[in-house]
Structure formats: C-alpha cells, structure tokens
Batch of 2 targets.
Target 1
Amino acid sequence: MNTTSERGLLFSTDLLLAVVILLLTSLAGLAFLSSLALHSASALPAYRLQRQGLFFLDALVKNDASQSFPGLAAFDSGLHRVTPNFLSPAPTAPELQGFPLLQSLRLVPFNGPETQWADKPLTGPANQASTTCYSFERLVLVGKEKALLIGVFCDG
C-alpha cells in the first residue's frame, strides 16, 4: 500500500507554493509591461508633434529663402554660404503654407518690437480642450542683437 510520507507532503506543498509565487510574479510582470506599452502608445502623438515642431524651427534658422524649404537664415555672400542662427537685420516672412501644425510664429528681439509672421486662431474641432499645443523657443541673432524665435505647434 502506497502512503504519502510526511517528507513527501511537505515537498509537494513547498513545490506548489513556489509554482504559485512564480505564476503570480509572472502575471505582475506581464501586467506592468502591458501598462507600459499602452502608456508609450498614448504618448506617441505628442512625441510626433514635439519632433515636428523642433525640426521645423531648426530648419527655419538653418535655411535661407532661396532653398526649397522656407528659411530665415542670412546668406553670407563673402563666405558663399548660409550662416545658421543668424538672421538678416530685416528678416522677411517665410513661406508658411503647407504647415498645418504651425499655430503661431513670432520673432521677439530682446530690444525692440515683436514681429509676428503667423497667428492662426484655434477654431472648430481644434478649439476643444483636447487640443495639445507646444511652444518652442530658439535663440537667434538678428543683425547684432539677440532675439527669440517662438513657434507654437498644435495638433488637430
């Protein structure tokens, strides 16, 4: 007749407890990973908006108006090249058609009047509380003075 000894019963109980703890730990790890993946997926549109805004402002101060992308950088004829982060003393408005995320673009000198090149009112579905907007500032030189190039980018 087969009887379970006391040692066998304790070993079986210990093994069962270890398996339950292993399964619960694995379940908690999977729950954490799934919540992390859901959070990352929900943050992706905001990341795209930030990336496009930063790249747009960067391109504005590194290109001049003669290139295919609209730019504000001054062309140095002595060096035969565009000087990035340096704008001519009287910068002209860049061509901003085709940039639907751009809400506002301003040049604010530290000493002098502000220049506003784009200012779209938030209307329609973009005026809802769910609209996400980011403002980016870029330090540039206008002539010999420092100024901030401020761009506001909104989704929708």
Target 2
Amino acid sequence: MTTHAQAMSYVVASEGRRLIPDQDRMTNPDCATYLALCQAWLDVLFIQRLGLHEVTIPQDLALAHGLLRGTPVSLRTRRFVGPGFSPLSIARIQTEQGQVCSLTVVGLPPTGGGLPILGMDLIALSGALSLVAVDLAPTDARTWQADCEPVLLRLAQQTESCLVPRKRPQFTVDTFSPRAVIAGARSGSEWSVFCALVEFLQQASDLWLRSVLREPLCGQAAHAAEACVLRWLAAEQQNRKEHNALAGIFGAAFAERYLNQFLFSTNRAGEQSGTTHATNRNECGFTSGGGP
C-alpha cells in the first residue's frame, strides 16, 4: 500500500525519466497504490505544470470524517484555480492509515473558454476498482472534436480489454461526451488501467497547456459554452447514487452541502444558473442519448 505522500515523492523523483513506474519495483501494489499515484500525477501534470494555485475552502469541506462499513475514513478535498480551470477540485477518501479508496476530479473551465469539463471518478471502496469514470465533457463542439475526442478514443482503445462497460446513467445523457468511459475494471487488470489513465492525464495536461495560446470564445459561442457547464453541474446534482453513497459514509446533511452547494454548485460568479434544456440535441452540438 502506498500513501499519497509516498506516491508524490516517487513521482517528483521520477519526472523526466519515467512516466509509468516499474511495477516490478513496487512493493505489493494494489488499487490504493494506483489511486495514490494517479493523484500524485495530477499534482505534477496539472497543478505544478499549469501553475495553478490553491484556494481556501471551508474547513468542514476540506476535511470530513466518516465511517465506511465501520472503518474510520476521511474525505480530503483541495481546490485550485489558474490557467484553464475555474476551479479544479480534487478529492480523495482514505483510511486512517492513508490508504486511498476513491479519487474524484472535477475541473471546470473558465466562463466561455470552450475548454471541456475534466471529470474523473476512480472508486475502490471495497478494494477492487469498481468504477472508472473518465470524461472530457464538451462545452464547444469544435474544440471537443479536434482536441478531446482523440484523447478519449486513445483511452478507450487502451482499456478495451481491461474494463467492463457500465450502462450510462440517465443523468449523463445530455452532458457527458459520447466517448466518456464508464466502466469497472476486470480483476487483475488494474495495472493496465492505471497505465492508460496516466497517459490520459499526460495528454489532457498537454491539451490544457496548449489552450493558453488560444483566443477565448466570444458572443453567443461563449454563452453556449457556459450553458453547457451549468447544465453539467445541474445534472451531477441528480446523481442520487453518488449522493446516497456519500451520505452513507459522512451523513446526509454533509452530502447535500458538499455535492449541491460546493462541488457541483451552479453558482458561477457573474452567470445565471438557469438554462434551457434542448430536446434532441444539446447546446454543445452533440446528439443526446449516445453511449461511450
């Protein structure tokens, strides 16, 4: 088992030499090890590489304590802002021993920027990697098709034999991209999934780095992009399975506040949260109802 601090030390020491660790040199790697390493790469490839800076959030949201089947666990959340993100939130659930059992990433683009929404959920609450949900949700069709679809296609190709696809939840139909990965890992394939995820993070980081050279969207395109973000946030608030799982560990009142008033809050400064929901084709330019 590798803690986040140990994983971060490894990643910083290995940067520039080897993106993927040598599995043979790792001591009893498990899902907790892979999740800790994923978060460490997030720190390097996004926070450090893009020059993001951490913002203060309420203490009860930054650190919450609960029970997972009788075992004490904590939810630790950090939030960052900077080029391409407004904001980037990274949350992990871990045991008292530092064993990471879930990792959640929500990266919202600046208003009208046209960048995708970075979403990642890696869940291993029972030890097995039961959920791998990864997406670059579109806010502008042209940007998504040119820059995001190839990255998601590469991830899908690399994990095709490693993942068991899950049915797309109804709340995601109009907001997730048609290439979103929603699956569970096959037993014994966790290492291959982890390697593919690290490459995905590298390519996504490249995408955000290139974005600083682009002109932002303007006029109607900017408004449509922001409408996509608001609709995505509102849809996430309808995810009762996530709400119930969090409530079961940390309490219903906390789950409501954390998910609806913080992580997926539609209160974006300077913007109206009300949006019109398209019937057959959403405002980002994609036909509704398609699976990954």
